[in-house]
Specification:
Elements: H1 32-53, H2 55-62, H3 69-72, H4 74-97, H5 99-110, H6 113-119, H7 123-152, H8 157-186, H9 191-209, H10 215-223, H11 242-252, H12 254-283, H13 288-316, H14 319-338, H15 342-370, H16 376-405, H17 407-428
Protein name: MFS transporter
Main location: membrane
Membrane topology: Multi-pass membrane protein
């Protein structure tokens, strides 16, 4: 695959910086209109995910009679595997064909998802819907991340990722809350999923009609890329093959590989929260409305908090914000395992959201710090492959432990793994924030 370089765009002829199309300029303020549109699009992407957070785990037992936790979590496994694989492809496809076509295709794939969930006569239909949802999320969310990194350059990368993830996960939380109340008032189907139909239609319209291609901005940054003065990235060249990008991001490069494992463990916990928290709360006798409130609180704090934490990572650096966030998540999960009522669970959900807010945009910013602009989209794809693979790993792990020892034991296990992941970051990751960009 031909990468984006200082002398050309993937799939085009030679292009010097002076001949870059439409004279792109890097910066958040300079690209405010397109950046804002991309924030709105990512909020719609998050809404597509949020329509499932409260309702689908409850449908597993009430509509389809699934009693075993492992069986009930198969929809998350399907989603996680599909999204993880598509994340990897999204980065490569965005380099080859451009960002906008990938974004539009992702929305086209999202269109039938709410309809399948409304009409599903069997659990197999729910799994099929989540395969499509995973593919769609992999294409749309990955591409909005890549496009925002393209636009802003290095100086405000943390803030850009904070705004992107805040929009997405804020919408996850608000939609989870809304669907919980819709389900309580009108039943589990079809009312909650009508929101998804509207989100998909608006997202496709915006992406097809008003979003512009950003690949030329990545070419501009590649043309003006400045290596670190400490020589830390001298071994990371502009012409890495896709296989080399995979190896560096997964294993070889300390910061990239530490970020990849932290991302996977973070979403391992999110898979647990998505699949088993509603079951745990329902078992304690909470109403569907209160379950929806708890399901919404965690991603809402996570989403809104990222505006602050993303900007802080631009000032303070990435490493210790990530490590501390992983440890805070572990503490919050332990509190959930220990609690038995709404208020302690609400506090724990807020702490879990705060810890995740410290980690989520900062990991993406760290990937952007280290990866050369010519292969950054592919590095983001590899990172998100590992990160969203955590959904599948978490669902399988949590389901097996919950069936054998109970839901609380599964929460304890994930809490322990999360704390260990923070230790790995503290030991292996170096500070990725370029001193010249502070």
């Amino acid at each position: 695959m031909k990468p984006i370089t200082a002398v050309g765009l993937a799939g085009t002829g030679p292009t010097t910086p002076s001949r870059l199309p439409r004279h792109p300029v890097l910066g958040l303020r300079q690209n405010a209109a397109q950046f804002t549109l991309l924030v709105a699009v990512n909020a719609l992407v998050g809404g597509m995910l949020g329509q499932e957070r409260t309702v689908v785990p409850l449908l597993a037992e009430s509509a389809f009679g699934l009693r075993a936790h492992t069986a009930g979590l198969t929809f998350i496994v399907a989603f996680g595997v599909a999204k993880a694989a598509t994340n990897y492809l999204a980065g490569a496809l965005a380099d080859r064909y451009g960002r906008k076509p990938v974004l539009v295709v992702g929305w086209l794939i999202a269109l039938p998802v709410p309809l399948l969930l409304i009409w599903a006569p069997s659990w197999a239909w729910v799994i099929a819907a989540n395969v499509l949802l995973g593919v769609s999320q992999g294409l749309t969310w990955s591409t909005t991340v890549i496009m925002k990194i393209d636009l802003v350059g290095s100086a405000r990368r943390g803030l850009a990722m904070g705004l992107n993830e805040a929009a997405g996960y804020g919408a996850v939380g608000l939609t989870a809350l809304a669907t919980g109340y819709l389900a309580q008032a009108y039943g589990l189907r079809p009312a909650p999923f009508l929101l998804g139909i509207a989100f998909a239609a608006v997202g496709l319209g915006l992406s097809g009609l008003v979003i512009r291609e950003t690949r030329e901005h990545a070419a501009l940054e590649a043309a003006t890329h400045q290596p670190r003065s400490d020589g830390r990235h001298d071994h990371l060249h502009a012409d890495l093959s896709s296989r080399e990008v995979l190896v560096h991001t997964s294993v070889r490069e300390p910061a990239l590989s530490a970020a990849s494992q932290a991302g996977m463990v973070n979403n391992l916990g999110d898979g647990l929260a998505w699949g088993l928290f509603p079951v745990l709360f329902a078992g304690a006798g909470l109403s569907v409305g209160r379950i929806g409130l708890l399901a919404a609180l965690y991603p809402a704090v996570w989403g809104l908090g990222q505006v602050v934490t993303g900007a802080l990572s631009d000032r303070w650096g990435r490493k210790w914000l990530i490590a501390a966030g992983m440890w805070l998540q572990g503490i919050a999960l332990a509190l959930i395992a220990l609690s038995n009522s709404f208020l302690p669970w609400a506090l724990a959900a807020a702490l879990l959201g705060a810890g995740t807010a410290m980690v989520y945009p900062t990991l993406l910013a760290a990937i952007g710090d280290v990866a050369h602009p010519s292969w950054r989209a592919r590095a983001v794809g590899v990172y998100r492959l590992w990160r969203d693979g955590g959904f599948a790993v978490g669902a399988v792990m949590a389901g097996i432990i919950a069936d054998a020892f109970g839901v609380r034991a599964a929460v304890w296990a994930v809490a322990a793994v999360t704390v260990v992941s923070g230790v790995v970051v503290a030991v292996r990751m170096y500070e990725t924030r370029h001193p010249a960009a502070r």
